[in-house]
Write a structure and sequence with these properties.
Shape: elongated
Helix content: 10-25%
Distance between the termini: 94 Å
Number of domains: 2
Largest sheet: 6 strands, antiparallel
């Protein structure tokens, strides 16, 4: 599959060639296509060659990826074919890349198999946080189930503290001297008791 730029300024002689292969896999019982290699040609001579990795999809699907690049920050799906090649001098990045090599109908892409992993770092972090929250909830429910009521062990009879009301009499009126054998003693006239109920 060749992508030619035609008469666009300095890109007039540039051609991007995609070498696609198709294979039948018994486990999936269907044909799969894969991007095997990418070549950059300028004025009919190969300037750079990149081996493609992990770019594949069922033959009846298309392949889509946000970035297909030779740069490490985009996960480097394109790898220079050899250390001695001029590919190391090139940096190739396709943005919003979609390709389909076979079973094309009416010039439209089929359903796309996306390159996004099912276990991206964000998804893994969400799963870990969900697990932590579930553990906290399970511990809280365990503590609530085993919580014992205070009514089983203590009978609380709540009544206000009661103090007998005492008269505001003079201290001299409250005691009466008793005389016996030279010792002076006193006896309280009002013998009221303070009672407290708990």
């Amino acid at each position: 599959l060749s992508l030619k730029f035609g008469d666009i300024g300095n890109l007039k002689g540039l051609v991007i060639r995609f070498l696609l292969t198709t294979s039948y896999y018994q486990l999936s019982v269907q044909n799969w296509f894969s991007l095997h290699r990418l070549q950059l040609l300028y004025n009919h001579s190969i300037q750079a060659t990149f081996n493609a990795t992990r770019i594949y999809a069922p033959a009846s699907y298309s392949y889509h990826c946000e970035h297909v690049s030779s740069l490490q920050r985009y996960d480097a799906l394109l790898i220079p074919s050899s250390a001695n090649d001029l590919s190391k001098l090139w940096e190739v990045t396709f943005t919003d890349f979609q390709i389909q090599g076979f079973n094309i109908e009416e010039g439209h892409f089929a359903y796309a198999k996306d390159c996004a992993s099912f276990f991206s770092p964000a998804i893994l972090m969400g799963l870990v946080m969900s697990l932590i929250l579930l553990l906290v909830l399970a511990y809280a429910l365990h503590m609530l189930i085993h919580l014992k009521s205070l009514d089983r062990h203590y009978e609380c009879k709540a009544s206000p503290a009661y103090f007998a009301q005492m008269k505001d009499n003079d201290v001299g009126d409250e005691k009466e001297p008793l005389r016996s054998s030279g010792n002076e003693s006193y006896e309280l006239r009002n013998q009221q008791f303070g009672k407290i109920y708990i």
